[in-house]
Amino acid sequence: MPGRIPEQFIDDLLARVDIVDVIQERVPLKKAGRDWSARCPFHDERSPSFTVSPAKQFYHCFGCGAHGSAIGFLMNYDRLEFPDAVEELASRAGLKVPYEGGREAPREDATDLYNLLDAAAKFYRRQLGENETAREYFAKRGLDEANLARFNLGYAPDQWDALKNALGTNAQRIALLEKTGMLTSGERGTKYDRFRDRVMFPILDRRGRTIAFGGRVLASNSSDHPDRENQTAGIPARTFQKSDGPKYLNSPETPLFHKGHELFGLWQVREANQKIARLIVVEGYMDAISLHQFGVTQAVATLGTATTRDHAEILFRQCADVYFCFDGDRAGRHAAWRAVESVLPRMRDGRQALFLFLPDGEDPDSLIRKEGLDGFEQRLKNATPLSQFFFAELGKDVNLTSLDGKARLAERARPLLAQIPDGAFRDLMLAELDKSTGVHVQIAAPADVAPARARSTRPQQRSLVRSAVALLVQRPALASALEPPWAFAELRQPGVPLLIELIGVCRARPDITTGALLEHFAEREEAKALQKLAVMDFPGGEDESRAEFLGAINQLDRQTESQRRSDLQLRLKELEMKGAAGLTEEERNELRQLLAVKEVRPQ
Ligand SMILES: [Zn+2]
After folding, report:
1. Centroid of ligand 1 to alpha carbon of 387 (angstroms)
2. Which pLDDT tens digit goes with each residue over 446-477?
């Protein structure tokens, strides 16, 4: 894990870049008053309801509610993870991202690792030109030049040290090669190339950088003489057995590569599709590439692992419809079930998971060759929806005509259905279970959902605290008008601690914008509320806002006095009842003063 990025840096970064530039490069913006507007890139619409505010440094869509800072925009639009979005903006601003407290070496190192892997990919690509057998392999698979180039396919020579000699020009580079998993060590510590005599598939991250490789043995070599190179000094004999290598070999887990988080081909999908309507998840690189070759340019492959929850989230972040392809045999259905388990917690409304089971002995590569694009599309059309596969699998060995069987099905389904996010899809699944078993399964709403609902039924009250927070979020500079100490800090009202915190942040960072401020609170549970307040409408300009803000603070101060007065009065009463000595002299004086002030009732 790379280290944490300090908040201070995020603030600085957001102060340096202009969100209008960042968005303008991706979405054509039109000036509309003080703001910029466009048709929303996150939902379909005819008239523009997407606005970008240069003053607040954030964007907001009044149609679909999308919103955020420049970082948030890159995460949603370029589909980057948070650290990558920060890296992207930082490189644009000419800043280096500082990381603190990571287990791995800081990212300074990472640049070297990326460069080295990029050089390795180029090396393998050149080697492909030199090797007839490897070129034949791809030719037999029907790959044209465009696809060889699109996937940057290559060949690792049949030598122990081809890559090591080409790139490991000094001890430091050899150490880096090892770190990227490109070298491996023999029993006596000799380092040699991990990938030998394999066709090579570079694995790219979501920014198109090479982070790892997959290598497939060339079939023609499986009958090679295992002892051929036994005489080479320093390398233990048993590592020479070429036949002991797996058919497919991936880079090991490295600081750059975590196979459970990556999908082969996703970069190419994004290159080929302006808007990704669907994704098709297959199990092999060649399957994914072959689908691309035949025109299914939305194919990705997992990297020798079952589908993880991280995969599911990444997939659904790209698009709403995800198809999973599996063999039709037992192993395939087992793998499909694991995909179901990963996907269920990600099934928010509007998302759809479908399962395509292939005929015996076929893989996506062989199938699309045989049936062509139309045949494959037809199969996708007939894919099994998640709900159908779910109940078919769970009910496989259950006798649904018996009460016992029905109870067992309900018992099995309950914990799984509980993982689906609250929404229409979960309700439908529960209704389906109800229908087939007659058992009404109830799932308790998560603790944080229930009170939110209860709250929303009450009429919206516009509290002073809320107004003050909203004004401050929209114009962080207002905080500079307030000098501590703040009397209202003692006020026992919801939102006061947040207001105090906001004032603190805004005063510490006088240039902070709305966007940066929201980013500061992005991980907090208050984030959603703050986003809403950031677009709350206040008539009037800067002066009016300032007056309204100071007015609200002033009233909060008076409410605090009033709170203190009732506190003291209550205490006085309690003490009297107990027959104890009254208030201290100090308290009596305070109360006297408070009573002299005109009474203000707390809301
Ligand atoms: Zn929108």
Report:
1. 29
2. 433 333 333 333 333 457 888 899 999 999 98
Q: Which structure tokens are listed for 454?
A: 């209860």
CATH T-level fold of 261-393: Dna Topoisomerase Vi A Subunit; Chain: A, domain 2 (3.40.1360)
- CATH number 1.10.860.10 is the correct assignment for the domain at 464-596: yes
CA angle 385, 346, 438 (to 5 degrees): 55
Ligand 1 center from residue 66 Cα (angstroms)? 6
Per residue in 16-49, pLDDT tens? 888 998 998 888 899 888 889 999 888 877 888 8
The highest-level CATH class for domain 7-93 is alpha beta
Q: How far is the CA of 517 from the centre of ligand 1 (A)?
A: 22
153, 138 contact by CB (below 8 A)? yes
pTM for this prediction: 0.60
Q: Using an 8 Å Cβ cutoff, are 147 and 289 in contact?
A: yes
Does residue 234 come out as left (phi exceeding 0), alpha (psi in the -120 to 50 range) or beta?
Answer: left
Q: How far is the CA of 29 from the centre of ligand 1 (A)?
A: 14
Residue 243 Cα to ligand 1 middle (Å): 55
CA 41 to ligand 1 center in whole angstroms = 7
Q: Domain map of the chain by residue range?
A: 7-93, 108-222+242-257, 261-393, 398-437, 464-596
Q: How far is the CA of 162 from the centre of ligand 1 (A)?
A: 52
User: At 439, which amino acid appears?
Assistant: V
Q: Tell me how far the alpha carbon of residue 35 lies from the centroid of ligand 1, in angstroms.
A: 16
Q: CATH assignment of 108-222+242-257?
A: 3.90.980.10
CA of 428 to the centre of ligand 1 (A): 27
CA distance 41 to 276: 12
Ligand 1: centre distance to CA 39 (Å): 8
